[in-house]
Automatic annotation (TrEMBL):
Higher taxonomy: Eukaryota, Metazoa, Chordata, Craniata, Vertebrata
Listed GO MF terms: phosphatidylinositol phosphate binding
GO cellular component terms, semicolon-separated: endosome
Keyword tRNA processing: no
UniProt superkingdom: Eukaryota
Pfam families: PX
Organism: Chloebia gouldiae (Gouldian finch)
Subcellular location: Cytoplasm; Endomembrane system; Endosome
Membrane topology reported for the UniProt record: Peripheral membrane protein
Broad class of where this protein is predominantly found: cytoplasm
Protein name as catalogued: PX domain-containing protein
Amino acid sequence: MLENREEELTTVRVQDPRVQNEGSWNSYVDYKIFLHTTSKAFTAKTSCVRRRYREFVWLRRQLQRNAGSV
């Protein structure tokens, strides 16, 4: 017997890079991250934030570090 189960989907878009403090010694690039999900694990179904490139580097390192424990 097949269950009538709704498929949960998550969409993440990284877009709209912007240079902040352009021309100064502390300039950096940030990106708009948009998330939309139908997952019941999230209370908010949509979210939009801006994050710096270095935060992506940190996330990658954390994922690599934890990959062996998954």
